[in-house]
Design brief:
Layout lengths: L2 H7 L13 E6 L1 H8 L3 H10 L2 E7 L3 H13 L3 E5 L3 H6 L3 H11 L5 E10 L6 H21 L2 E7 L2 H10 L6 E3 L6 H8 L4 E4 L9 H9 L5 E3 L21 H12 L3 H15 L10
Parallel strand pairs: 1-2, 2-3, 3-4, 4-5, 5-6, 6-7, 7-8
Helix pairs in contact: 4-6, 9-10
Length: about 290
Amino acid sequence: MTIAERLDELHLPGLPEPLPSPVVDSHTHLDSTREYSGLDVETNLAAAAAVGVDRVVEVGCDVASSRIAVELAQRFEQVVAAVAMHPNDAARSSDLDADLAAIDELAAAEGVRAIGETGLDHYRTTEPDAHAVQEKSFVAHIEMARRHGLSLVIHHREAHDDLLRVLAAEQLPERVVMHCFSGDADFARACLDHDAWLSFPGVVTYKNAGYLSEALKVTPLEKVLVETDAPYLTPVPARGKANAPYLVPHTLRFMAEVLGADLDELCQQVRRNTFEAFGGAWGPADA
């Protein structure tokens, strides 16, 4: 069965036109995508490579998914891992200290390039006491990333002011990535003041997300990343179906139009940026 036939069997979007140069999906959840849509990891990665997305960062959200991220990074040379307690999972944890200790242990594993996704989320977690737990977890992850010499991948949802307060108060690691960037141009500038990379998801293609296009325009090209956050946030024209790394070309083409940039040059820049943001190239020798 071909990749196209498998995608059709699963009622998933078809393969887009391949990109002129390879890029990296800076944030995805391969295992969650398998559970959500039935797309197995091998076919997922093959479909991505077929359209020019030949590397991915597999991101954990709790201890179990972080262990899976490490396993996938050690199994597939085109995958590296990020490990963490997602802020909402941190708020729900029955033993956060134990969970953080487990993440700290995983951070030393082969194939791990980042601590994340960590941060603050006031959208799904609304109780003030839980916000304090999220902040405790976030600060612990910041220290962990710094101590292990890893990148820090930050989740931020409806908590921008509190997030900036924490970033200003803490000693940050050398490399910080704003995952699924969701702010406006002013928030983008504030994050850039911390020398962060901004990772743009498929949401930037949505008609009601003009604020993201404005944020993209004020972001230096050397600080731009692209991601899926698959299986969520599927870009137009595939919105409404499950996301996967092979759909990155839709987002990148839209970003090139917003920036008035040459697509090939943007692909090459984003690839360089991603390797820099995550501590250097990985994968086959052609990296």
